[in-house]
Each structure stands twice: as C-alpha cells, then as structure tokens.
Design brief:
mainly alpha; single chain; 117 residues
C-alpha cells in the first residue's frame, strides 16, 4: 500500500474529509505527530488497525454470548445446528439495522475525502 492509499484509508477509518478534520475530530491520534511525515501516517494507520482488530475480537466474543451460539463439531446434533441458525438469523437482522444506522451517521463518499500529497 502506498502512502496515498494509507492516508486515504486513515481518513476513511476516522470519518474525516481532510487532514484538518482528522486533527479536529481525532486529536488523540495526531498528538505529537508531524502529518507532513509519511511515518506519522503509517503509525496512525497501524494504531487504527490494532484497535479495529481488538474490537473485532471482542465483538466476536460478544456475538457468541449474546446470540447463544453453540460450538459445533462433527458429533453435534441437528437441534444444535437449528439453534445456531435461529441465532444467526437474529444476528443478521441486528447487523442490517446497525449498518443502516452507521450509514446514516457517516455519509462520507470517496469523492469527499481530500488527501494532501
């Protein structure tokens, strides 16, 4: 990934339209960083990816608990499989609602993102 792509991804992940937006909206990411340096952008990107990976791990654990999925293996019963399918259906409905809410809050298109080169 080149530096232009990294900058664009950072702005997209932080829901910012420009470097100025990033500094206003997410000051914790830019404190002590010189955004004219490529290394600063790479550090910010790596921080965002670490947070995202951690969040996904936590979300996975929460999903299994909230929807009461059962671990299945070769010897699992049909009843366990049907139970998980019901939980999966509810999960998908909740996920659709979450996506709609996120899209409504974060209407920033690629064209709106301004990356200084």
């Amino acid at each position: 990934m080149n530096i232009y792509q990294i900058k664009k991804q950072v702005l997209k992940l932080t829901f910012s339209k420009s470097t100025n937006d990033l500094q206003k909206n997410r000051p914790e990411l830019v404190i002590g960083k010189d955004l004219r340096c490529n290394e600063s952008w790479i550090d910010i990107y790596n921080t965002l990816k670490l947070v995202e990976d951690f969040s996904q791990d936590q979300e996975g654990k929460n999903i299994q608990e909230n929807y009461q999925f059962k671990d299945l293996d070769f010897h699992s019963s049909l009843e366990d499989l049907v139970h998980n399918m019901g939980g999966l259906n509810q999960f998908m409905n909740d996920l659709d609602q979450s996506f709609e809410q996120i899209e409504a809050k974060t209407k920033i298109s690629d064209e709106e993102i301004f990356v200084e080169e």
